[in-house]
Amino acid sequence: MKQKRIGIIMHGVTGRMGANQHLARSIAEIRRQGGVELRDGTRLMPDPVLVGRDAGKLERLARAHGVERWTTDLDAALQNASDSVFFDAATTPLRPTLLKRAIAAGKHVYCEKPVATSLAEAMSLYRAAKKARVRHGVVQDKLWLPGLQKLKALREQGFFGRILSVRGEFGYWVFEGDPHSSQPAAQRPSWNYRSKDGGGIILDMLCHWRYVLDNLFGKVRAVSCRGATHIPWRWDENGRRYRADADDAAYATFELAGGVIAHFNSSWCVRVRRDDLLTLQVDGTKGSAVAGLRDCRIQSYGDTPKPVWNPDVPQPIDFFAGWQETPQGSYDNAFKLQWEAFLRHVAGEGGFRWSLLEGARGVQLAELGLQSWKQRRWLKVPELKA
Length: 386
Ligand SMILES: NC(=O)c1ccc[n+]([C@@H]2O[C@H](COP(=O)([O-])OP(=O)(O)OC[C@H]3O[C@@H](n4cnc5c(N)ncnc54)[C@H](O)[C@@H]3O)[C@@H](O)[C@H]2O)c1
Known about the structure:
The protein has helices at residues 16-32, 55-64, 74-79, 95-104, 119-132, 146-157, 201-216, 334-346, 356-375, and strands at residues 3-11, 36-37, 43-51, 69-71, 83-88, 108-111, 136-138, 163-171, 220-228, 233-235, 241-243, 249-256, 261-267, 278-284, 287-291, 296-300, 324-325, 379-380. With 386 residues, the chain is of the alpha/beta class. Helix 1 packs across helix 8, helix 4 (95-104) runs parallel beside helix 5 and helix 7 packs across helix 9 (356-375). The site of nicotinamide-adenine-dinucleotide (NAD) has 21 residues, from helix 1.
């Protein structure tokens, strides 16, 4: 069996997403399975070099995942011509500068979302990659989630009839992190709640909702968004109290090409009483579906109950019973599947439409969402030209 090495500079891998989803669940897993198979049977084998600021953390991470190379010297890593891909999962505000450095060094680039904190920066990054003729991509992991794959299959089978609306409920309670209380420690990094560090749920989540809607239900044409900062004080990783000035909830409505209306509630200040941390309900003329991250339940027109409003008697219908689970199937990790597609693309096999331009579209929707909140009005989403 022929093997071909592909050198990947992995930046930001000591963080939550970098360590768990990108290193452990994707690159280390691809190495364990013997690489990515190309058309002629050659196995494309990732050879990562971990890059960051903390040598101790990098060394521990490298050892844990059987990775031989790590460094705190980003410049030297970028100068190594035998590593052709640069990946970034570090903090958002640094991303455009870092990626531009990598592009200038001739690397193909792949990164977490959001690609930037403003549309202007995101477009400038896309143009730099296009001009340098490097291959580029952005993480759009939700598209590979089993629950969303099942929705896509239902839509393609015509199960919904004409799709009318999509309701997204995302979120859970993120603890404030007060070390002097008995509450659990905060489960998300503190920068998420500070505007100056690229925090805010609108920037974070509207990027996701853009590609989910564009790809599954119709291009997003207009947005109305109301953000909120419900919890104004939190405690950081060092137990220091800080002003949480970024939005921690967003109530956003979208108009899609084709007439579908989508509404997404995103919140880090909500307690979960639904099937999953993200649920998407799709209602169509012929049937409805509710998908979580992995599962998906459907109700056809024929199975639709006929409720009658009467608060004087206990509800006679068990509304949760009238849904059928769709077949489970077997699905690989969403991040890993997208990594495999990107690596094949870099090796010259297969397109990769989840580009920096797509990443810019996500930032565009987030920026318009913030603007809509500030101006208290609906805003059109102009087409971004390649
Ligand atoms: N695709 C998704 O579903 C998803 C989910 C969560 C986060 N993200 C994105 O992933 C990125 C990282 O988020 P996270 O939750 O892992 O954050 P995190 O705080 O856990 O990790 C941040 C990483 O950036 C590094 N870093 C911070 N400041 C730096 C600096 N000045 N120089 C170099 N490195 C620096 C940290 O050392 C760490 O490795 C963000 O852009 C975030 O929006 C994506």
